[in-house]
């Protein structure tokens, strides 16, 4: 039997992961009518406005000194880097393809946390993490480039090559991993949802400027479904989803709850098939499972080091 407190933490964590799992499919929907720059920056503006209200209503204290610089790192990773890079990548890459590459995120976050915290995990951690990265890159190289328009040749990349969408997705993983790792440390000082909220507010001037630029270049015009997808990205993916996720981590145990994130790519791939009608070939299924297994083993090895490692 799972203790009631642990079960509560797991359920909150699962709710957060379920909210995040729609991010890739809904980004794919939104880019059908809105520019990737508008989606990546505009969703951050929506979330930042909500964050500002939450911080003001709860009268949170202002960050101090070096905390602002560390918040800038968090903002660069999860407010600026990940949304913008994934939005541009998903203009050509299918949502299921993006979900497989982004499945590297738990292992990448664990790696960033190890480097940031100067941890000394066993060699197995590095081996499994490297295998996961190689599998993800091999999966990406096994896919032909995606056409920009129906009937046209692939925009970039070909069988056996990384195309620009994959490079952007891998960049998004690295950006988010750094942001999550720094945010996890800073959350011990500012609080979990407060850290995300301050990062959103800090990035607001930049993202508002980019939103205005995108609107001047291409006035937004989309269907109700595409606007609804954009609204979800700003309200849920970048704001309310973090409340559930960080509440689950706070209830804990953190090591156990954090592993719930490993099911996120599975859900994203399922939504891509169910909601977008994307065909899920064996390459996608096998590639996704392989990356998820490697990420899961890497996270477990880091969280459960051998006694010899613990005794150092």
- Helices and strands: which structural class? mainly alpha
Mean model confidence by pLDDT = 82
Number of helices: 14
Reading the helices and strands in chain order gives HHHHHHHHHHHHHH
What count of domains describes the coordinates?
A: 1
Separation of the first and last Cα atoms: 33 Å
| Biggest sheet architecture | none
- Rg to the nearest angstrom? 19 Å
In one word, what is the shape?
A: globular
Q: What is the helical fraction, as a range of percent?
A: over 70%
Please provide the count of β strands: 0
Low-confidence stretches: 145-159, 308-312
User: How much β-strand is present in the residues?
Assistant: under 5%
Write the layout of secondary structure elements.
Elements: H1 4-21, H2 23-30, H3 36-57, H4 66-89, H5 95-102, H6 105-116, H7 123-142, H8 164-190, H9 192-217, H10 224-251, H11 254-258, H12 264-276, H13 282-303, H14 307-310
Describe the structure.
The protein is mainly α. It is built from 14 helices and no strands. Helix 4 (66-89) crosses helix 9, helix 6 crosses helix 8 (164-190) and helix 7 runs antiparallel to helix 13. The chain is globular and about 50 Å long. The two termini are 33 Å apart. The model is unreliable at 145-159 and 308-312 (pLDDT under 50).
Key attributes of the depicted protein:
single chain; 312 residues
């Amino acid at each position: 039997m799972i203790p009631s407190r642990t079960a509560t933490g797991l359920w909150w964590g699962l709710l957060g992961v379920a909210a995040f799992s729609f991010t890739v499919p809904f980004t794919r929907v939104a880019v059908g009518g809105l520019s990737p720059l508008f989606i990546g920056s505009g969703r951050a503006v929506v979330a930042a406005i909500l964050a500002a209200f939450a911080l003001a209503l709860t009268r949170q204290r202002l960050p101090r000194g070096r905390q602002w610089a560390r918040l800038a790192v968090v903002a660069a990773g999860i407010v600026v880097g990940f949304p913008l890079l994934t939005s541009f990548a998903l203009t050509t890459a299918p949502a299921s393809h993006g979900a497989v590459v982004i499945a590297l995120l738990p292992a990448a976050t664990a790696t960033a946390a190890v480097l940031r915290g100067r941890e000394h995990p066993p060699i197995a951690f590095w081996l499994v993490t490297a295998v996961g990265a190689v599998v993800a890159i091999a999966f990406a190289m096994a896919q032909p480039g995606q056409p920009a328009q129906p009937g046209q040749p692939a925009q970039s990349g070909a069988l056996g090559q990384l195309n620009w969408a994959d490079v952007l997705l891998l960049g998004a993983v690295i950006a988010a991993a750094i942001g999550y790792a720094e945010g996890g440390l800073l959350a011990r000082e500012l609080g979990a949802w407060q850290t995300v909220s301050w990062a959103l507010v800090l990035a607001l001037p930049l993202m508002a400027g980019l939103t205005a630029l995108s609107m001047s270049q291409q006035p937004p015009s989309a269907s109700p479904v595409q606007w609804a997808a954009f609204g979800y990205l700003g309200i849920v993916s970048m704001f309310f989803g973090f409340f559930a996720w960080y509440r689950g981590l706070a209830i804990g145990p953190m090591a156990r709850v954090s592993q719930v994130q490993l099911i996120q790519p599975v859900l994203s791939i399922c939504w891509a098939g169910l909601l977008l009608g994307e065909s899920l070939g064996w390459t996608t299924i096998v590639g996704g499972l392989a990356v998820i297994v490697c990420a899961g083993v890497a996270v477990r090895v880091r969280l459960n080091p051998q006694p010899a490692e613990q005794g150092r």
